[in-house]
Amino acid sequence: MKKKIVVFASGNGSNFINIFEHLNRGFLDAKIILLISNNPKCGAVDFAKKNQINYKIINDFRYPELKNKNKEYEFVLQYYKTDLILLAGFMKKIPKNIVDIYKDRIMNIHPSLLPKFGGKGFYGMKVHNAAIKSNEKNSGATVHLVNGEYDKGKVIIQEKVKINASDTAETLASKVLKIEHQIYPKAIEIFFSDNFKTQQ
Ligand code: GRF
User: Fold this and answer.
1) In testing the pocket of ligand 1, which one of 128, 180, 182 has its CB within 8 Å of the most ligand atoms?
2) What's the pTM?
3) Domain coordinates of the chain in residue numbers?
4) Which residues, 6 or more positions from 57, have their beta carbon under 8 angstroms from its beta carbon?
5) pLDDT per position in the chain (200 positions), as tens?
C-alpha cells in the first residue's frame, strides 16, 4: 500500500510542489494525501486547490483556543493515517502532542548547513543574510527529523553550495532552494528505506 505523506507549508510551496511532482511520476510508492497550512492565501494552498489535493487550514483565526488547535492537528493526522509528516516552509512550531505522537516521523527542511544558522529566529532570508555576513565559504540545505527544539533533530541529509564573492542573500537563497528540491525527495526515499528503519 502507498505510504501516506502529509505536508505542512505556509508559503510559496515550491518544496511541496516539487515533492508532489516527484511522487506523481512514480518516484516512490508514496502519496501526498493532505496539505496542512496556517495560511489560506499561500502558494501551497493554491496549488493544492488546482490539483485536487486535500488541504486543511489550521490557524489561530479558526481555532482561537490553543488546546483546540493542537487537538485538531492530532485529529486530522490520525484521520488520514499518516506515515510521514513533512514540514516544508511551515512557519509555526509543531505542538508537543504531535511531536510526541509522531516521534521520528516528522522531517523538516532548513536552508543552511545545520547546526549553522539554525534555531529560533533563523528562517527565510535571515538565514541567508547571516551566512553572507559571516563570510562563510559554503552554505546549503539540511533535512532533519523534528524534535521539540527548533532545527535540532537528527540530520538525514545535507548538501553544500558554494558561496561566491558576488553572491547576495537573494542569489544564495535561489541556489539553496535548488539544492532543497534535490535533497528533500532523497530524504523521503531514505526515510522509507529498510536501512533507515533499523537505525532508529
Ligand atoms: C525553504 O527555504 C525551506 O528551507 C524553509 O522554508 C522555505 C520554503 O520554501 N524551511 P517553499 O515554500 O517550499 O518554496
Assistant:
1) 180
2) 0.96
3) 1-102, 109-200
4) 36, 37, 38, 39, 40, 45
5) 999 999 999 999 999 999 999 999 999 999 999 999 999 999 999 999 999 999 999 999 999 999 999 999 999 999 999 999 999 999 999 999 999 999 999 999 999 999 999 999 999 999 999 999 999 999 999 999 999 888 899 999 999 999 999 999 999 999 999 999 999 999 999 999 988 864 55
Q: How far apart are CA 162 and CA 140, in angstroms?
A: 8
For residue 140 and ligand 1, the question of a CB distance below 6 A is answered with no
Tell me, yes or no, if the two domains 1-102 and 109-200 fold the same way.
yes
What CATH number should be reported for the domain whose range is 109-200?
Answer: 3.40.50.170
Reply yes or no on domain 1-102 having CATH 3.40.50.261: no
Instruction: Please indicate whether residue 99, judged by its CB atom, sits closer than 6 Å to ligand 1.
Output: no
Q: Say how many Å lie between the CA of residue 130 and the centre of ligand 1.
A: 16
What's the chain's length in residues?
200
Under 8 Å between Cβ of 27 and 109: no
- Regarding the beta carbon of 173 and ligand 1, being less than 6 Å apart is answered no
118 CB near ligand 1 (under 6 Å): no
Q: Is 110 marked active-site? A: yes
- Write down the catalytic residue from 22, 110, 144, 181: 110
Q: Which of 40, 56, 70, 49 minimizes the C-alpha distance to 7?
A: 56
Question: Cβ(45) to ligand 1 under 6 A?
Answer: no
